[in-house]
């Protein structure tokens, strides 16, 4: 069994930022990630050198000091969301109205190269052999002054066991409570608090269409639209800021149970774009689509109905750490500062590293 000082579980932004902080302190660690890629809810497929954000697209420099600082530290380029021109509004019965520009408050910014540049920039500061992909943690056992982490797929016997003096659990608390066995049992109060903490945006599906020409811009539209009839409920311009490709992107507004047929959702979405922006809008160069509610390492059964109101997040049941400090919580949904957002992912990583090494 491999023995380590610290194991970070989850290589989303929170886990990777915790790894960056540990590397900067000269601490030794490994990071176990269930998927075959890093980034978690940050997912950016590429087309013609442009990366489309299928997870988070925006940060808010005016109120997200950690993300703004990270963008600067990594030498990345942020740029404001394009919103010049009129918007569109689609009623319940599909009728379309033109509405005046609806500026986002505070101003939303995108990152050139997509949000994955945050992850890739941080990864460069971490020893490469510390990042272990395809390592779904299924059980964490508390021992006297350390913990044992078991890795394995559901229904299979654990394939690897690791020992560490400290664990940083950097995944949504609901997902952790629903999929990881904790030995000894967590208290009922803590388990319930974790299960009740919804995973922000886990019930959503996101669509991206890329074009060579932005016909909507040429017709005086910003690309921003709101729809009561769907499939997309909210649409924005998702173009490359230095020229093409140009993009329209949005959140699918229908319930996860009605999205099972991916091709049907994509076809209906292209039809909707045709109605909103003209006949060329239904023939993009490429389309990207991810249904986060179907992602085993993001969503649980409880996330199938998307939460619309932003909850107030906290460390679960007020615990930053449990098991006498052996296991500390990170992950955006454990942050009481911008919980659920990228900023919260960084804030929770800072808190967990501080708590684990106090
Ligand atoms: C569609 C969408 C749009 C969003 N828009 C925005 C936005 O515009 N601005 C913003 O600030 N935020 C936005 N968010 C939220 C933002 O993506 C999250 O706050 C942030 O990415 C959370 O990072 P995290 O590291 O805490 O969690 P995650 O990214 O969920 O990372 C958790 C990691 O743990 C891994 N994992 C899970 N189970 C296990 C296991 N058993 N063993 C090992 N590893 C495991 C996962 O694979 C994942 O890599 C959006 C999210 C989505 C889905």
What's the CATH first level of the largest domain? Answer: Alpha Beta
The radius of gyration is: 21 Å
CATH superfamily of the largest domain: FAD/NAD(P)-binding domain
Indicate the CATH topology of the largest domain: FAD/NAD(P)-binding domain
General shape: elongated
Strand content: 25-35%
Amount of helix: 10-25%
End-to-end separation in angstroms reads: 27 Å
Major sheet, described briefly?
Answer: 9 strands, mixed
What is the H/E string? EHEEEHEEEEHEEEEHEHEHEEEHEEEH
Number of strands: 20
Low-confidence stretches: none
CATH architecture verdict of the largest domain:
3-Layer(bba) Sandwich
Q: Give the class from helix and strand content and strand pairing.
A: alpha/beta
Would you tell me the overall average pLDDT?
Answer: 95
- Give the domain tally: 2
Query: Counting H and I runs of at least 4 residues, what is the number of helices?
Result: 8
Bound molecule kinds, no repeats: flavin-adenine dinucleotide
Which key terms come to mind for this protein?
single chain, 358 residues, alpha/beta, FAD/NAD(P)-binding domain, Polyamine Oxidase, Chain A, domain 2, 2 domains, nine-stranded mixed sheet, seven-stranded mixed sheet, 8 helices, 27% strand, elongated, binds flavin-adenine dinucleotide
Descriptive report:
The chain is of the alpha/beta class and 358 residues long. It has two domains: 1-42 and 115-199 and 310-358, FAD/NAD(P)-binding domain (3-Layer(bba) Sandwich); 44-113 and 203-294, Alpha-Beta Complex (Polyamine Oxidase, Chain A, domain 2). The chain has helices at 13-25, 65-73, 116-123, 173-179, 188-196, 215-218, 262-277, 342-356; strands spanning 2-9, 29-32, 46-47, 50-51, 78-80, 86-90, 96-99, 109-111, 131-132, 137-142, 147-151, 160-169, 181-183, 205-211, 221-227, 232-237, 246-252, 286-291, 321-322, 327-329. Strand 3 (46-47) and strand 4 (50-51) form a beta hairpin. Helix 4 (173-179) crosses helix 5 (188-196). The radius of gyration is 21 Å and the shape is elongated. The model has no long low-confidence stretch (mean pLDDT 95). Bound molecules: flavin-adenine dinucleotide (FAD). Flavin-adenine dinucleotide binds next to helix 1, helix 4 and helix 8.
């Amino acid at each position: 069994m491999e023995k380590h000082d610290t194991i970070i579980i989850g290589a989303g932004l929170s886990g990777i930022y915790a790894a960056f902080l540990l590397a900067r302190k000269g601490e030794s660690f490994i990071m176990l990630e269930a998927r075959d890629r890093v980034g978690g809810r940050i997912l950016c497929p590429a087309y013609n050198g442009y990366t489309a954000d299928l997870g988070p697209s925006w940060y808010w420099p005016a109120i997200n000091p950690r993300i703004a600082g990270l963008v600067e530290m990594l030498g990345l380029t942020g740029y404001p969301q394009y919103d010049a021109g009129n918007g569109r509004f689609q009623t319940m019965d599909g009728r379309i109205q033109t509405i005046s520009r609806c500026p986002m408050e505070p101003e939303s910014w995108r990152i050139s190269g997509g949000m994955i540049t945050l992850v890739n920039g941080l990864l460069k500061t971490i020893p490469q052999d510390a990042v272990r992909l395809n390592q779904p943690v299924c059980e964490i056992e508390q021992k006297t002054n350390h913990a044992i982490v078991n890795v394995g797929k559901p229904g299979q016997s654990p394939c690897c066991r690791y020992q560490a003096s400290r664990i940083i659990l950097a995944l949504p608390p609901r997902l952790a409570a629903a999929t990881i066995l904790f030995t000894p049992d967590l208290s009922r109060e803590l388990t319930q608090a974790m299960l009740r903490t919804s995973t922000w945006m886990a019930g959503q599906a996101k669509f991206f269409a890329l074009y060579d020409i932005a016909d909507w811009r040429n017709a005086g539209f910003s690309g921003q639209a709101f729809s009561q009839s769907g499939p997309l409920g909210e649409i924005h311009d998702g173009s490359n800021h230095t020229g093409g490709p140009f993009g329209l992107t949005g959140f699918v507004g229908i319930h996860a149970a009605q999205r099972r047929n991916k091709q049907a959702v994509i076809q209906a979405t292209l039809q909707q774009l045709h109605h909103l922006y003209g006949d060329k809008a239904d023939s993009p160069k490429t389309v990207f689509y991810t249904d986060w509610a179907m992602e085993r390492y993001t969503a649980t059964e409880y996330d199938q109905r998307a939460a619309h109101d932003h909850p107030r997040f906290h460390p679960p049941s007020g615990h930053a750490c449990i098991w006498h400090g052996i296991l500390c919580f990170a992950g955006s949904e454990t942050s009481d500062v911008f919980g659920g957002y990228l900023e919260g992912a960084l804030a929770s990583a800072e808190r967990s590293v501080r708590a684990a090494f106090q």
